[in-house]
Design brief:
The complex is a heterodimer. Chain A is 75% helix and 0% strand. Chain A has helices at 2-8, 22-57, 62-76, 80-90, 97-104, 108-134, 138-146, 151-166, 168-181, 193-204, 207-235. By secondary structure, chain B is α/β, with parallel strands linked by helices. Chain B folds into two domains: 7-17 and 116-170, 3-Layer(aba) Sandwich (D-Maltodextrin-Binding Protein, domain 2); 22-113, 3-Layer(aba) Sandwich (D-Maltodextrin-Binding Protein, domain 2). Chain B is built from six helices and nine strands, in the order E-E-E-E-H-E-H-E-H-E-E-E-H-H-H. Chain B has helices spanning 50-58, 70-78, 89-98, 126-141, 144-153, 165-173; strands spanning 12-13, 18-20, 22-27, 42-46, 63-67, 84-88, 105-108, 115-117, 120-121. A five-stranded mixed sheet of chain B has the order 5-4-6-3-7, with helices on both faces. Chain B is globular and about 55 Å long. The chains are: A mainly alpha, B alpha/beta.
Chain lengths: 245, 178
């Protein structure tokens, strides 16, 4: 690119074609596929765990609240990287030898990453959902129970749907964090997007092109998800509150 | 770092100062004895290494599990998550000799790649490259190189990696006359 060379005295010859020639382009596509699959599976489990433990933490019963607190404090206060190593190297060691063998032959890297990401982000999502639940006036809970709904039904039919609609911005935040944190899975051998860009970098020594590709792809994926969530927010806005589209 | 032609497009290399090849590190008694036995098995490799590239091309039926660093790959090997770990012979012997129980492991297989180690330097710095090459040649010519080799890889060292006569010859021929 002559213009760059002129302005910055660039000593580096750019070859963007490495990104899409032959197998390298194929690798990037595989990386994107793995990242999306890993993130999507983890996101579904994260939401379920988040809603469950967020609700438990707002329960009127102390023992139930304690269970929720233990889960959240235990899983969010350890770095995600440590969790990934734990689930991949540590956890299978307690299984009997046959089970370990089965695990070792059924993609342990991918599933350890899914479990690690899900429980960690589940704990963070639980706090987010709890914030949503706690912003609902208590009168709504009391009136629901007064109409004859049980506590469980109240949560399921009334409180959680409202909480989710109120708390979409932090949920979007956590979802994007999940997508970006999926890149840590490369440390346990999952061939996702960051891994693939590093692979291209080591095969071709074209660091600038490879890392730019990785950066742009993550940016586009995250912007896409953010735009989608903005649409969801607009569509499910609760009228009468300060929400703006 | 292994001196390769494609790497020479980005960096310069000194003279080859060490010669090894890729092999496999396995638990003693493993059915894997070399590159012909690895189809369908889980083989650990280090990300970006030349061995990974070679295996991908030569034995596509092998399931490669790629780790960013050697420590993670060795832990996976001890836990049975991979059936073998492949890297340059010298790296494998180093790992084996530093393991808590070296007798449990063995390095198997003929060299399936040729790995000449050179020192990588910034491109087009001829004076520096000349300095490095000159120093290497002097060390080989007056025997200093072989003394250092013996200290770290000789029979009494922590990592025992004997130099073959062929390699010794090759190193001696790299020294050009004054």
């Amino acid at each position: 690119m002559p213009s760059l060379a002129g302005i910055f005295g660039f000593q580096y010859a750019l070859h963007w074609s490495v990104l899409w020639t032959g197998e390298y382009g194929h690798w990037i596509l595989q990386g994107i596929e793995t990242t999306l699959l890993l993130s999507a599976l983890s996101w579904v489990i994260t939401l379920c765990l988040g809603i469950l433990f967020g609700s438990l933490r707002t329960s009127p019963y102390k023992p139930v609240r304690t269970v929720g607190s233990i889960y959240v404090e235990f899983f969010r206060n350890v770095p995600l990287l440590v969790w990934l190593f734990f689930w991949y190297f540590g956890a299978p060691q307690v299984l009997p030898a046959d089970a370990q063998d089965w695990v070792n032959h059924h993609h342990p890297e991918f599933w350890s990453a899914v479990i690690g990401l899900s429980v960690y982000h589940g704990a963070r999502m639980a706090e987010v959902i709890r914030a949503g639940l706690q912003s609902i006036p208590k009168t709504l809970l009391e009136s629901s129970v007064a109409t004859g709904l049980s506590l469980g039904q109240t949560y399921r039919l009334i409180l959680i749907p409202i909480a989710l609609r109120l708390i979409i911005p932090p949920v979007t935040n956590e979802s994007l964090n999940l997508l970006k944190n999926s890149s840590l899975a490369m440390t346990i051998g999952v061939a996702e997007l960051t891994f693939m860009t590093r692979q291209i970098e080591t095969y071709t020594a074209k660091a600038f092109e490879a890392l730019t590709a990785g950066t742009l792809i993550y940016l586009v994926l995250c912007l896409g998800i953010a735009a989608l969530m903005a649409q969801v927010e607009r569509r499910y806005r609760i009228p009468g509150l300060i929400a703006r589209g | 770092m292994t001196d390769t032609r494609s790497r020479r497009e980005s960096v310069d290399f000194s003279l080859t100062f060490f010669v090894t090849g890729a092999q496999f590190l396995v638990k003693k008694g493993s059915p894997i004895h070399g590159i012909n036995d690895i189809a369908g098995k889980r083989i650990g490799t280090q990300q970006g290494s030349t061995n990974e590239r070679e295996l991908r091309a030569r034995v596509p039926q092998a399931q490669l599990v790629i780790f960013p660093d050697q420590a993670a790959a060795f832990t996976a090997l001890t836990q049975g998550k991979i059936d073998a770990y492949t890297n340059d012979g010298i790296q494998l012997v180093g790992l084996k000799d530093k393991a808590p129980n070296p007798a449990e492991w063995e390095v198997v297989g003929d060299f399936y790649t040729y790995e000449p180690y050179g020192m990588a330097m910034r491109r087009n710095d001829d004076d520096f490259r000349w300095l490095v090459d000159n120093t290497l040649m002097t060390a080989i010519a007056d025997g200093e190189y072989f003394k250092i080799y013996d200290k770290w890889f000789g029979p009494n060292a922590e990592v025992h990696y004997p130099m073959t006569a062929k390699v010794k010859n090759f190193l001696e021929y790299e020294v050009v006359p004054n």
